[in-house]
Amino acid sequence: MRFEAKALDTPTDTRRVGKEELTVASVGDTTITREVMEPGWKWSTDVKPIVGTDLCRASHQLFIVSGRLHVVMEDGAALEVRTGDAAVIPPGHDAWVVGDDPCEIVDFSPTYSQLIDAGEAYHAMTAPRASGKRCSRSGAAQKLRAEARVGRLDPGAVELVLGAVGHRPGRRSGPAGLTPREVEVLVLIATGASAKQVAYVLGIAPKTASSHIERIYVKCAVSSRSDATRFAIAHGLVNPLTPTGR
Q1: Are 167 and 137 in contact (CB under 8 A)?
Q2: Do residues 196 and 188 touch, judged by C-beta distance below 8 A?
Q3: What are phi and psi of 171, to 5 degrees?
Q4: Which residues of 16-53 are buried (b: 16+ CB within 10 A; e: fewer)?
Q5: How much is the pTM?
Q6: What is the enclosing helix (H) or strand (E) of 80?
Q7: Which of 41, 51, 55 is nearest to 97 (CA)?
Q8: All structural domains of the chain
Q9: In this predicted model, what pLDDT tens digit does every residue of 183-193 receive, in sequence order?
Q10: Burial level of 152, CB count in 10 A (0-12/13-18/19+)?
């Protein structure tokens, strides 16, 4: 680990998504995202059209710099965070700005920006071009997975975006005797998905997803999600916190 500092006003990547401005900075092995959401911003209105998932499938570790944000989980649980709060928000939620002031947050989890990266890349590939031609859906899926293999996109984010628009998950053989399906499950849980969310993405029963996770733990000789994530990173199935292609 080396000593390093980076100002968020000189970011690696800054862009606008709907009523939200994203500033992404990579520091060491950490990706930090500064998000400024205007009044009226709502995930299901501003971000869902880009990533395609029914709810936000990113995990968040947030510090609220200013403003208020209301979060509703898929089971109906609700939480409102405001200036000075720190919050952990698991995948599977909608959220919106409360009041007439912008909401500024710092997100220490990379999954939100990774999902937006994958969604924007897919839409760019399939959008009409000046020539009138566009990349086919299957061609775009192949290109996205190729980008993930070389580290320019996150594999788990790519599969979530592709699954949301109806593509079958990519099949890869894996280490420790993992089947292609188990690799798919490992990639998803290593990027924050619960067993229920794995079932949704892969089109399987939650009980089946849980069985896959149990077998993965046995084959990989791990006993926790964090250990499984480290195993996936060590074997190149998911990127570390910072995609090398940024």
Answers
A1: yes
A2: no
A3: -110, 125
A4: ebbbbbbbbbbeeeebbbbbbbeeebbbeebbbebbbb
A5: 0.68
A6: strand 78-82
A7: 41
A8: 13-109 (2.60.120.10), 117-234 (1.10.10.10)
A9: 889 989 998 88
A10: middle
